[in-house]
Write the structure tokens for this entry.
Amino acid sequence: MNEPITNLWSIPLLIVIPILTAILVNLLYNKANAIKTIAISSSITLLAIALISPFGFQWFTGQPGVIPGGGYTFSADIFAWRLSLEYYYGSLQQILIVIMSLLLAFVVFISTRVLKKNFGTYIGLLFLLYTSAAIIIMVNDFYHLWIGVEFGSLLVAGVVAASGESISQKAALKYTFFSALSGAGMAISLALILGLTGYSNISDAIRFMSNNQLGGMSGVLYVAFGFLILSWIYAGGLAPTHPLKSDVYGAAYPHATILLQTQSKLMLVAMGLIILRLFSGLPFAKEVMLAISVITMMLGVVMALLQTDFRWTLAYLIISHSGLVTVGISLGTVAGIIGGLFQAVNDIIYMSILLLCCEAVLYFGSGTSIRSISGIAKSSPWLTGAVIVGALAASGIPPLNGFQSELILIQAALGQGLPEIAVIILMVSVTTFIALFKSIYSIFLRPADQTIIVGKPSADATTTGLSPVPKVLFLALAVLIGIAIILGVYPNLALNFLNETAMKVVYVPWVP
Amino acid sequence: MGSIDSIYDKVKKYIHDFASGRGASSAMTGYMSGELQTVVFIMIIAAFFRLFSIPLGMVILIGVVAAVLYFAPTIKTMERENASDLNQVLFWVVIYFAAIIAVTLWGR
Amino acid sequence: MIEITLQLLSFIAAAILVIVGLTGMLFLDNLIKKIISFTLLSDGVNLALVSLGYVEGGIASILTPGSSVVDFPYNAILIFGPGIVLTNIVIGVSTTAILVALTIVLYKRYGTLKASKVLKGERK
């Protein structure tokens, strides 16, 4: 590696700029124009920083890897102790943070257009949500990992409660209760690993465990694994906590759900990789992770079939597709991890398309239940086109991006001798199609009939007191659909970013 | 004692009831395909236990078939157990946690 | 025979606090009681974290001028525990604040603090 031995300039900016923006917009409180200017320019700055930043490290309270003979090193080949709290910005971090920054810019733009009052605090929360996800994906030490998860889950509760309905307040309360429980569990788990190894840096802890043949020997390690898995389950909304997480997704504003689901996908990826790096030596560790992922996929997609509201269908599908991401990661092979990471990228994109369409349906003023609204295709054909493309991408139809990652996942599962997993992945994509088209047919394609309140076209919406569908929403849809098609045709554009991470996790797990 | 005709009529009426009506029908198809999906998913997950040991997989598969028949319609049980009641979710989480620790310790 | 040390005793106290807190969160129906159980759980975790770094006759892990650099690693307590406890206290307070705030809002809406009434799944 040729990087100079210095802290990378961009990492602190990616953390500090959103925090400062959050403080500033919160103080401005109700000055709409100032808030808009600051929030939008800051989100575009973040996107630019994430795009142009080189790869590198940021150390707190310390130095780069210390060579036993003295001096510092970056190289993965030379034995060195890191001994410090550390962030790493690499290719995986870059692609995920760039996508998240793009979504942040769109979400901030949309929320400044559609919310009428007191939105300073709300936008501040969105920026902090971004910070928590950025921390977790870049982190390479236990301390920041724990802080990121804890503070991220409080923010989720804040963003959900902000939509002000009774169901969202309940969802926030339930989620916070659970965050209290699993945050405590995570602290115990990290403390146990620390007690065993004595290092707060994840690379050092893994190096210590492999040098001392600790994997599988210590009973304490199993308890630590259990608690860390518990917090992973909770942060990503995997199987037993999925009712709480789907409540969160369904009860927030759909545009906020875009950021919520992005944050939880990033948490799933980051924590999943850390668990894999730390515990892949434990017997049955990968099988446990795999079982949880499969159960999540199944419960999510079956519950999505039962919903009669587009918002809740999407909420459960997001849960189900989180399972697809973690299946790849928990297979533990290079192909599996690449598939899981690519699925995370694609999932964020096509779920955002669907959620933006859901947001647009809300502006028609009759809710998103399949019983209350119909016939949107006539008044907005472009929106209908977008929702169909999103649904096809989510169900893994070529040439869209969902197809490529599901193909890699299926091949990885078959390569591991697990045809059951391949069958389940196929069934999940078919069922996703059924669940989505049930809603899409009823809301968009079914002709409006007299007994059902017909959705009002967006042009008249200003006279009825509803927000018109903002232009920026269509811009966001166009950009995201463009990315979905490009990634579907040229998957290597994204895969080039993910290969290196997957190789490192499998072959040299102590390298961040 | 029903004749063939009467059974046919019953089936026809049953299918007709599902297929007619607007909002109700699309909700109902969800339940029907959900039921089918659940049963198949549960079978596949039971077969997954062959990874740990093949006799265990066979026993669990038979147990699961019995359980599916006992709980039928499965989808209703499933929906009830997946309600977002806080106490219920906490209960399931404790069960999961115990299972995770038990399985990993067993493999030791 | 396990030697009974101060560290072991504080681990036992922490375990008792965690179990009491967990039981309360699981089985008490009143939201305020659930929140109090959470604070007990969080205190138990803090105690466990502090005890983990305990060293018999140890010193604070701050290298002061004049102290021996050679002895420091053997005598200093583990710094991660106290560090994470400080943060845990702050996060615990903010979590409690959010829980209480949401409980107040929901109490105004429903007039009851029973979790089985307020927090039951309703939409399906």
Observations:
- The mean pLDDT of chain C is 83.
